[in-house]
């Protein structure tokens, strides 16, 4: 009898321990999931960068990281100011984050200078190596990896010649303080010569200078080119206004600027770029080492044309070019 009672006690105690362990494991899993905190820093609000951020969050949700459930996002916008970006980056060092998403080159540089222990995912960064963010594109080193938004500058400039073979002078507007823009301007200079185009550089330091700068190009150029420059794109409507008033074709660096009045681009989709970055973030949260994860690029580029913009700018688009378009905005 005693033996039977003892056996029952052992069974009951064992079950209790198993239930307790199971409960603790369940609590741990729940705690682990709810503890995921991601800091997001963006240099300025404009459609392309916003789309990258939205794509990132969507991809994270697809992988099971749902905001308000098992992950929280601390989103900060530097409003185009580098000192603000640096302040945000320093604050991130105290916030016990599991991961940081830095959108655009200036904010990526600010975070890289301040945060050394937390994994950093970058996106919408044209040339991470030239920006001093990684040791190499193949093996970044340190705590940084992510995606590049390097666009096909040559194909974008070719659009001018396809629209009108007589175009000779192109004005390019960008912020000379943005490494990403300088890289594109240098590429544009190189490719322009091959296309028998003269490039006239116009640099600005803030979005407030964009309208006046664009106006200064009128009468001096046959078209305007805006690369993926954060400062200028945040004020793209100012350039669109000048292009419309002066009948100058405006070629831009990404499709969001076409949606906002640019004539055309051959470029990447920033929403998809954000999703690709999200996939990399999931790998990092699963234990992958950012230092060993190559910088990734979007393979597909699309020709996007805005027909209303063509009308506003007095541009007669060749039928052949229209037939090549992946997307036509009316």
From TrEMBL:
It comes from the Bacteria. It holds the Pfam family ABC_sub_bind. PROSITE patterns: PROKAR_LIPOPROTEIN. InterPro entries: ABC_transpt-TYRBP-like (IPR007487), Peripla_BP_I (IPR028082). This is Sugar ABC transporter substrate-binding protein.
């Amino acid at each position: 009898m005693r033996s039977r009672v003892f056996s029952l006690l052992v069974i009951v105690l064992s079950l209790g321990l198993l239930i307790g362990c199971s409960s603790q494991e369940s609590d741990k899993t729940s705690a682990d999931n709810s503890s995921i905190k991601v800091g997001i820093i963006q240099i300025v609000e404009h459609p392309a960068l916003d789309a990258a951020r939205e794509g990132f969050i969507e991809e994270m949700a697809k992988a099971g990281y749902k905001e308000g459930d098992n992950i929280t996002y601390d989103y900060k916008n530097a409003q185009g100011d580098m000192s603000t970006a640096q302040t945000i980056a320093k604050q991130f060092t105290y916030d016990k984050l599991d991961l940081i998403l830095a959108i655009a080159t200036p904010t990526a540089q600010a975070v890289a200078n301040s945060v050394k222990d937390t994994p950093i995912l970058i996106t919408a960064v044209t040339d991470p190596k030239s920006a001093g963010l990684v040791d190499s594109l193949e093996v970044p080193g340190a705590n940084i990896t992510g995606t590049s938004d390097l666009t096909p500058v040559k194909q974008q400039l070719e659009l001018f010649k396809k629209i009108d073979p007589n175009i000779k002078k192109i004005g390019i507007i960008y912020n000379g303080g943005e490494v990403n823009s300088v890289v594109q301007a240098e590429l544009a200079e190189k490719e322009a010569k091959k296309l028998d185009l003269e490039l006239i550089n116009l640099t600005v330091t803030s979005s407030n200078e964009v309208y006046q700068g664009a106006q200064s190009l009128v009468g001096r150029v046959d078209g305007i080119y805006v690369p993926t420059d954060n400062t200028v794109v945040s004020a793209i409507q100012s350039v669109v206004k000048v292009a419309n008033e002066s009948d100058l074709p405006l070629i831009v660096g990404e499709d969001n600027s076409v949606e906002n009045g640019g004539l055309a681009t051959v470029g990447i989709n920033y929403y998809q770029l954000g999703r690709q970055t999200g996939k990399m973030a999931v790998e990092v949260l699963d234990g992958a080492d950012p230092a060993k994860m190559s910088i990734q690029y979007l393979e597909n580029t699309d020709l996007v044309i805005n027909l209303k913009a063509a009308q506003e700018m007095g541009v007669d688009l060749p039928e052949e070019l229209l037939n090549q378009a992946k997307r036509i905005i009316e």
